[in-house]
Amino acid sequence: MEEADLQQAAKVHQQAFVRQQRSYEWIKCNFNAAPRFLNFVAELNDEVVGYIVWGQKSGFRPEVILELEQLAVLPSHHNQGIATQLITQSLPQVKQLLAEQGSKLKHIIVNTRADNYAQQIYQKLLGAEVEMTIKSLYSADEVFMIARNVCPD
């Protein structure tokens, strides 16, 4: 993600997360928090149609616990493989950025609504498994998933 992408990424956020507010501020503060947050976009015909935000948890460590902080695709572009591409194409770049800071990826955590079909994507692509469910956390039950030992020695 580049600064020029912020307005379009905010549009994606606004359409993907209708209960959230102040989309531009949200996207901009995550963008400005690099390298703690690593932001990537998916573009189609020079339009941002999706984005992914990866976050390093608990400080900069030799073995990183990485969170898939947020993944969003314009509703008009659902079921076209964009979310899959965002994960599969950004994760190698994240691993490279971690290596450049002297770190390696250990685990990936992700949380989502319990009824979100994206759980299947996280399980298939990352190997993430549901570790727990928290009742009525945001707008519904929320599951926390972990992909353990993503890059073993």
Automatic annotation (TrEMBL):
Q: What CDD domains is this protein classified in?
A: NAT_SF (cd04301)
Which Pfam family, any one of them, does this sequence belong to? Answer: Acetyltransf_1
Ranges where the N-acetyltransferase domain occurs: 1-150
Name of the protein described by the UniProt record? N-acetyltransferase
Output the PROSITE patterns linked to this UniProt entry: GNAT
